[in-house]
Design a protein that fits this description.
The protein is α+β, with helices and mostly antiparallel strands. The chain has one domain: L-fuculose-1-phosphate Aldolase (3-Layer(aba) Sandwich), CATH 3.40.225. The protein is built from 10 helices and 10 strands. Helix 4 packs parallel to helix 7 and helix 6 runs antiparallel to helix 8. The structure holds zinc ion. Zinc ion binds next to loops.
Length: about 260
């Protein structure tokens, strides 16, 4: 059974612009057909990049539409297999091309944000493939990062597909129960990042800040170790009016 359909008319200009921007080779966030983006649609659906399409040159024909709740029900069912998931993401053949939602669509569906950008930035994956992966982002390392990223979560490596989908859905459910929404940055061990935002600009901001944060951390580890911002100072920092105002401007307020 499929929960995926093909309707290029539902792909917005802003989703296309975000996809191509994140796919710009000069930014080194993805190469080839790596990474994917999505936008929430009315009626419990998301439009998400199809597998095999390069972000840098994405067109409306490179996206498919996925029904969120049936997909998440399939992922929650312990009897489901990878083959079931692959079938659910198949949108059929259109204009002579097979169209299937990215295998990482579950991550987008579980995030439930207006916009989601999933990339594999080289600087970030380097740390997520290191001995520091689980702890590198446990604390903020400088204040602008704290403003833009605010809250992040780490997910240990899971095989892309059903395993990662299940792990990410469990994390997203736990985050919503505790904080009311998913962390805007989820770091996937040995894999990449999932960034949630109310706007494309918010996804861009958190993605860019995460790449910079990776470089800062790599430099700090090379200089003898990380000395993060003290947690005791962060609650008061986030309560400041000027900081919440900046987060609203960036579209990263809340969570
Ligand atoms: Zn990925």
């Amino acid at each position: 059974m499929t929960f995926t359909s093909y309707d290029p008319d539902l792909v917005s200009a802003e989703l296309l612009a975000l996809t191509r921007s994140l796919g710009d080779p000069a930014r080194d966030l993805v190469i080839l057909a790596e990474g994917n983006t999505s936008q929430r649609l009315p009626g419990g659906r998301i439009v998400v990049k199809a597998t095999g399409a390069a972000m840098a040159a994405a067109t409306a024909e490179d996206f498919v539409v996925v029904e969120v709740e049936p997909l998440l029900d399939l992922v929650r069912d312990p009897a489901s297999t990878q083959a079931d998931l692959s079938a659910a993401l198949d949108a059929g053949v259109h204009d002579g091309r097979s169209r299937r939602a990215s295998i990482e669509s579950v991550v987008h569906a579980a995030t439930r944000a207006e916009f989601v950008g999933h990339t594999h930035p080289t600087d970030v994956v380097a740390l997520l493939a290191s001995v520091h992966a689980a702890t590198a982002w446990r604390d903020h390392v400088y204040s602008d990062e704290a403003v833009v990223v605010s809250r992040s979560a780490f997910l240990p490596y899971a095989s892309p597909g059903l395993d990662l989908g299940r792990a990410h859905l469990a994390l997203a459910d736990a985050q919503r129960a505790e904080h009311g929404e998913v962390a805007r940055l989820v770091l996937l061990g040995n894999h990449g990042i999932v960034v949630a935002g109310a706007t494309p600009a918010a996804v861009e901001a958190v993605t860019a800040m995460t790449v910079k944060g990776a470089r800062v951390r790599a430099g700090a580890y090379a200089a003898g170790g990380l000395a993060p911002l003290p947690r005791s100072a962060m609650a008061a920092f986030f309560a400041r009016d000027d900081i919440t105002a900046r987060q609203r401007e960036l579209g990263t307020a809340g969570g």
